[in-house]
Structure formats: structure tokens, C-alpha cells
Amino acid sequence: MRLHVGCAMWTHARWQGRFLPARLPPGDRLRAYASWCDAVEGNTTFYATPSRETVESWARQTPADFRFVVKLPKPITHEHRLIGAEDELRAFLDAMEPLGPRHHALWVQLPGSFSPADVGALAAFLRRLPRGHRYAVEVRHPAFFAEERAERLLERVLAGAGAEWVPFDTTVLFRSPPTSDAERDAWTKKPRVPRRARALTGHPIVRYLGRDAEERTVRGWRPWVDTVVEWLREGRSPTVFVHTPDNADAPALARRFHDEVRARLPELAPLPEPVAADEPPLTLF
Question: Is the distance from CB of 207 to CB of 244 less than 8 angstroms?
Fold first, then answer.
């Protein structure tokens, strides 16, 4: 029984000296982060495909059961809109190969303009993807959440390809007006869609965005604790990413989420023991 938790990144200026050693070189920060969380979103790959050597360093810094959920590059999803991007996809998958089992899922985040009328392009794209990888799709067009026919169409396409639907739960953020610069910025950038908690595969992935105030973030994730407990009891192996607008306390919050689930399911495997922020990180393996 495994629940993996993580953040939107593995390094942050406000983590230095708190969650990561203050004078840690950039090339060692992932190793330190991996002592706090056992998963991470690969958001940077959206902007540029990293070199194979860079990805090899990610693999060296993490144990084999660590989970990377890496986002497809922008040219594939937003510029080509999944059509005619075979060369870019091939180059990206080649770069990710050194992750081996750590490459938990290829994350296809689609633009808000990608509507139910475009589902045919998604279906064709998923059919062309190589076997041996796990795939997860995030949509943002309101129709997929408001129209039952569109929702069922997307579910059929994803289920037919063995792909997961990734929910990005921003409902807590938009429940009341923002109270900080970070929250105001998030209001202008994050999608405003209903909460969705239906898993299609044995490996559901959740992105949860709270508030800068810790207790508001914790109150908002209570339904997810119930959902994740149910998934684990069903034999699924979920991954949950905890965000806040400023992400200042995200590693501690991700661990707290895991602790709340484990309080309900004591048999759940524990997270690793964090490296102290005032000590150099130990080798993980």
C-alpha cells in the first residue's frame, strides 16, 4: 500500500535553510528534496526538454521508487496541439529514458482552448504513444466539467488508452477573495474548474492547490483524504501533489497530508526521514 506525495518543484528560495540545507549546490537539491517527498511534478520540461545528462543526474539523486510526473513540452501540447509532433515527442521520451522506473507518468497538460471538439486529436495521439509508459491527461476547458456528454467522451478515450485524468483542484483558492500577492497572482493564472475525484486507473494523480494560510489549506484537502483512503483500500496507488500560491511550506504540507492518510491507514508505507536543513544530505542508496 503506497501513497506518494510531492510538490510542484524540488527547489525553492524559501526552502533553503528550512527544508533543504542552506548552502546546498543546485545539483544536490533534488537528493535533499527526495528525503522529504517521494514524488515531484516535472513542470520545467514544459518549457524545454532537458539534456539526457541532466535527466541522468535526476536519476542518480533519487531512489528507484521515487515518482516523476513529467509534463510534455509546450510545442507538443500547445503549439502542435498533439498533431504532427512525432519528432519532438521522440526526443523528449529519449531524454527521459534514464529515469527508468522513476518515470511514473507522462503528463499531457492541454490548454484551456482544447475543447471536446478536439478529443479526436487526443485519441489519435494516445494511440500513437509507445507502450511501456503510463500516461495522464489534464484538461482545462469548462465543457469537460459542465457537460456530461463531454465528460463521458473524454473518459472513454482515456480509459481506452489506459490513461488517467489528472484533476487540478483549485476550489479552495477560489472559495473566497485572495489575501496576499501570491494568492492574487494565482487567481489570474490558475484554472477555475469544479473538483473532480473519479479515478480511471490504478494510479490516480491529484494536483491540489490550497491557500497561503496552512489551516485553510488543510481544511480544504479533507475531502481528498477521504478519497485517497478509499482509493488505497481499493488497491490503487495514488500520487498527490500539494501546492499553495507561494509554495513556501509545500514539503511540510505534503508530508502532513500523508500523515493524515496514514492515521486512517496505519499499514500505509511511511515516507523517508527528512534530511535536517542544517546538515548535508546523506546518500539515499
Answer: no
Residue with cell 531524454: 95
CA distance linking residue 275 with residue 9, whole number of Å: 17
N-to-C CA span, the chain:
22
Match 509554495 to its residue by C-alpha cell.
247
Whole-number pLDDT of residue 24: 85
Q: Which residues contact 81 (CB under 8 A, 6 or more apart)?
A: 111, 114, 118, 121
Q: Which residues are CB-neighbours of 98 under 8 A, at least 6 positions away?
A: 52, 55, 56, 58, 59
Per-residue pLDDT reduced to its tens digit, 165-204: 999 999 999 999 999 999 999 999 999 999 999 999 999 9
Starting at the earlier edge strand, list the strands of the sheet with 4-7. Answer: 164-165, 135-138, 103-109, 67-71, 39-42, 4-7, 239-243, 205-209, 168-169
Cell numbers of 14, please? 524559501
What CA–CA distance (Å, rounded) separates 195 from 204?
A: 14
In whole angstroms, give the CA distance from residue 60 to residue 168.
Answer: 30
Q: How far apart are CA 102 and CA 87, in angstroms?
A: 23
Q: What's the pTM value of the predicted model, to 2 decimals?
A: 0.95
Indicate the residue type of 276. A
Alpha carbons 211 and 132: distance in angstroms, whole number: 37
Instruction: Enumerate the β-bridge partners of residue 169.
Output: 208
pLDDT in tens, 220-263: 999 999 999 999 999 999 999 999 999 999 999 999 999 999 99
* Residue of 175, 195, 200 lying closest to 187 (CA atoms): 175
Query: What is each CA distance from 55 to 5, 97, 103, 129, 245, in whole angstroms?
Result: 21, 8, 11, 21, 27
